[in-house]
Amino acid sequence: MGFRAAGKSSTGNSILDREEFDLKTSAQCVRRHGEVADRHITVIEAPGWWRNYTAEISRELLKQEILLSVSLCPPGPHAVLLIIPVDKIFKEIQRKALQGYLDLLGERVWSHTIVLFTHGDSLFDTSIEQHIESEGQDLQWLLDKCGNRYHVLNNQNRSDHTQIKELLEKIEETVAQNNDCYFEIDRKILQEIKEKRRAEEERAEERMKRMKIQREDIRSQMSDGQHLSELRIVLMGHRAAGKSSAGNIILGREEFNLKRSAQCVRRHGEVADRHITVIEAPGWWMNYSVEVSSELLKQEILLSMSLCSPGPHAVLLIIRVDTRFKEIHRKAVQGHLDLLGERVWSHTIVLFTCGDSLLYTSIEQHIESEGQDLQWLLDKCGNRYHVLNNQNRSDHTQIKELLEKIEETVVQNNGCHFEIDRTILQEIKERRRAEEERAEERMKRMQKQRDDIRSQMSE
Question: Which fold has domain 229-412?
Answer without folding.
Answer: Rossmann fold (3.40.50)
